[in-house]
Amino acid sequence: MATAPIDLDGTVAVVTGANRGLGRAMALALAGAGARVVLASPEAAALAQVADEIAARHGQGRALALATDISVRADCENLLKESLRVFGGLHVLVNNARHPYLTRLPLWQTDPDNWQQCIRVNIMGSFLLTHTVAPHFLAQSFGRIVNLTTSLGTLQTRHYSQYGATKTALEAMTMIWAQDFAGTGVTVNSLHPGGQVDTGFTKRREGRTPLPVDVLDHAIVWLASRHSDGKTGGRYCGSRWDNTLPPDQAAARALDPPVLRAP
Fold first, then answer.
1. 163 is catalytic
2. pLDDT in tens, 86-108
3. What is the C-alpha end-to-end distance of the chain, expressed in Å?
């Protein structure tokens, strides 16, 4: 017997970094499941193209494109305000955005200004936007926060200290925030592809077949839904999602051991 698809009708989700790659794919998947999606990125023209793509596939009024710098508090506040004004709610936050100009160099060759920009977007931006929407989530006793991270191997890869440091911070933030929100109806989880993704922008590693850009689609729809009620502080791997299983079983199979042990 086929499993019924997850229905996100009535759900409003923000996806940062929605202008391309994994962010674009997840936004399309959420809209395809019935959600209305707020697309956030500083790249206004690219966001408009994604919004048009969602409209063509799923109908008008399913997407709102907002040029947003998540490292600026006023932009985060405007994102929440416009989500509520246009769609009448907000239920899901997908912290996917990252600084686009990551360098892969030894520590002593890394540009300190570029390093600071990476910290500003990847860590501070994710914090600012989550901090901005948290009171709204708490007031409605419901919210889904999903932080996009990376595989354990990438966290420790040579010359990746800039990227690895920010994604390690997001893993710690996930576990800490999950405890902060415990018992409130707001859940916090991390999600990673489980390998290199063919985004069209990443240089392929020799001898490795990249994962498809839609590798996180089924997982993000489940995490955005009521199926994930009570599931918090987890780390989910998109490439281990088995779509032949019922969604809850697939999620259990995709759940990683924690990177760090909670106290």
1. yes
2. 999 999 999 998 766 667 777 78
3. 42
pTM: 0.92
**Left, alpha or beta for 224 (phi > 0: left; psi -120 to 50: alpha)?**
alpha
13, β-bridge pairs: 37, 92
Do 149 and 106 form a contact (C-beta atoms < 8 A)?
no
Q: Which two tokens stand for residue 164?
A: 């690895």
Instruction: Find the helix or strand (DSSP H, E) in which 129 lies.
Output: helix 126-140
Please name every residue paired with 255 in a beta bridge, in sequence order, or none if there are none: 236
- Residue pair 163/118 in contact (Cβ under 8 Å)? The answer is yes
Nearest partner of 234 among 175, 149, 155, 148, judged by Cα: 175
Q: Domain 12-254: give its CATH architecture.
A: 3-Layer(aba) Sandwich (3.40)
| CA 46 – CA 200 distance, rounded (Å) | 15
Bridge partners of 237, per DSSP, are 192
Token reading at 195? 């390998």
Contact status, residue 191 vs residue 145, Cβ threshold 8 Å: no
pLDDT by residue (tens digit) across 166-205? 888 999 999 999 999 999 999 999 999 988 887 765 555 5
- The DSSP symbol for 170 reads H
Measure CA 34 to chain center: 18
Phi first, then psi: what are they for 4, rounded to 5°?
-65, 140
Place of tokens 């839609």: 214
Domain ranges of the chain: 12-254
Catalytic residue among 101, 160, 163, 236: 163
Q: Centre a 10 Å sphere on the Cβ of residue 160 and count the other Cβ atoms it contains.
A: 18
Cβ neighbors of 3 (< 8 A, separation 6 or more) are 245, 246, 247
Neighbours of 245 (CB within 10 A): 14
